[in-house]
Structures are given as C-alpha cells and as structure tokens.
Write a structure and sequence with these properties.
Blueprint lengths: L3 E6 L6 H7 L2 E3 L2 E4 L2 E4 L6 H10 L5 E3 L3 H13 L4 E6 L7 H11 L6 E5 L4 H16 L4 H14 E6 L4 H6 L6 H4 L6 E5 L6 E6 L2 H15 L2 E8 L5 H8 L9 E4 L2 H7 L4 E7 L4
Parallel strand pairs: 1-2, 1-6, 6-7, 11-12
Antiparallel strand pairs: 3-4, 3-5, 8-9, 8-13, 9-10, 11-13
C-alpha cells in the first residue's frame, strides 16, 4: 500500500496543530542572535522572536538546514513505511534550504524516492502548498500526482508584503529587484512581491493605510482566488488590515497567522503579508 509523506521547512509557518493533524515533517532553520543559535519553532516562538529582535542592537541571521538533516528525516520516514516523499521548501532563489533537500534526496535514492519542489514562495504561501500536498497524500494520490499538484500551485501562488521598514531586507541582502526602493524609503511604505520567488518591488505607497488598500485591491483584481492567507510580524495594526479587508472579502475565507522568525528576520517587525492562489487556465 502506498504511503506518501510530506516534508517541508519551518519557513512554512504552519501551526503545531496543522503539522500534527496532517502528519507533516518540518525541518527547522536556525536563527542566531549574536553567538546564540536557536532552532526555529522548537527554541524560538514568533512572539518571543519579535520582542527579542526589537531589543537587539544587531539583526539576527538565519541558516538553512544541512543536507544531513534532510537525509536523516528522509531515512526515518522510509524506515517508518514511507513509499515516497514529497519535500516542498521555501523559494530556492532566497535560500539554500531547497538545494540541501535535493542533495539529500540523491543520497537516499537507494532507500526511498524523494521529489523536491521549489514552492517559489514563503510563509503561508509555502504552507498552503504543503497542506494541499498532505491532503492529497491522505487521499491516496500518487507521488507523480502530488508533485504535479505542488508544482502547479507554486506557479499560481501570489505573495505580497506590506513592509514597515526596508532596513532588515537591505542588511540581509534579500532586496533583489527591490534594490531601487532602498534609497528612497523616507515617508514611503513599500510593498514587495515575492510571487516569482524573488523579492521585487510591487508598489510604493505614502501611508500604511494606502498600502493596506493596495493589498486588498490586488486580491480583488485577482479574484477568484483560493487559499487566501494573511500573516503578520507582530504588526500592531493587523486588526485594522483585517477590518479593511472585511469590507470587501468574507473573512471566513482567510487563514491568519504569524510570520515566523525565518521570514521575520528579513521582512522586519510590522510586516503584513497576503498569499493566495489564482485560478489556472481552463
């Protein structure tokens, strides 16, 4: 009997309840403050992370899991009866996490087949793909079918972030196509687009309220959409954004949650993200 298992990394920002419900294996990244490395999720919760980052003189750094960590998990799942594994990771453009999984997949090919998928996304965008993969596995779909599902969702997933400050992105070297924004950030509330797997400029707004309106309008422009999620990095005005969103969109459709330490390190405190999946071609 086929038993396909799903693996991802902690940048998916899935809750413990969802991880347990769907039997997902999550490999953590490391967030380091000074000389103190902390395991994302296990040793560093989002609430504690943002409080600590706001008080720190220097930004924390992030480190990807090693191929050996992926290999250990892959072999453990195979020993537990997995007949195949689909591993979905954060954007390969922004982290070596995915390539580490690819290396590990080759190392375990004698024991179990592992398909690695570049989500081209982050946080809840990645998380939504992982959850759909887990549901497909539970429904008995094949390795080929689940891999194709993930790849298709990756192509159709959109991610935008209202950034409160560009300083973290600039210092972390993750600005990509948004480099031109850095020099003119005074009185600007930027919006970045990570839909391609890279950090690119989407818009420049003069106020936080206008950035919220831009996010709402972008969702409406792309309707019909599914897997609509709103995440935040200790944003005090999260409820304000949801209230604005609720004037046009049924909030029952929206999954909300924290943007975890891995993405928060680069996006900064106050970030609010929206992720969703657009309709495919008929």
């Amino acid at each position: 009997m086929s038993s396909i298992r799903i693996v991802t990394d902690s940048a998916s920002d899935l809750t413990d309840d969802l991880i347990e419900q769907w039997g997902i294996s999550v490999i953590p990244l490391i967030v380091t403050f000074g000389d103190e490395p902390l395991v994302d999720g296990a040793e560093l919760a989002p609430q504690d992370f943002y409080a600590r980052m706001s008080a720190a003189e220097e930004l924390p750094t992030t480190a990807a899991p090693s191929p050996g960590q992926f290999e250990e998990v892959f072999r453990g799942l195979a020993a537990d009866g997995a007949t195949g594994i689909v591993c979905v990771n954060l954007s390969y453009e922004l982290s070596v996490t995915g390539p580490a999984a690819v290396t590990a997949a080759k190392s375990v090919s004698d024991q179990v087949e592992v398909r690695c998928v570049d989500s081209r996304s982050l946080t809840s965008g990645l998380g939504s793909i992982v959850l759909e993969a887990a549901a497909a596995a539970a429904d008995g779909q094949s390795l080929d079918e689940i891999e194709a599902l993930c790849a298709d969702m990756a192509e159709r997933t959109r991610m935008f972030g209202a950034i409160d400050t560009m300083e973290n992105l600039r210092k972390g070297g993750r600005v990509g196509g948004a480099k031109a924004m850095v020099g003119s950030m005074l009185s600007i509330k930027p919006i970045v687009d990570v839909s391609s797997g890279r950090v690119e400029e989407a818009a420049r707004t003069r106020t936080r309220r206008r950035s919220f309106a831009w996010l709402r309008d972008r969702i409406l422009d792309d309707e019909p959409v599914t897997h609509l999620c709103v995440g935040h990095g200790a944003a005090e005005d999260m409820d304000d954004f949801l209230a604005l969103l609720g004037t046009s969109i049924d909030l029952e459709r929206v999954r909300t949650g924290w943007i975890g330490p891995v993405i928060g390190t680069h996006a900064g405190q106050g970030v609010i993200s929206v992720t969703y999946v657009v309709a495919g071609d008929d």
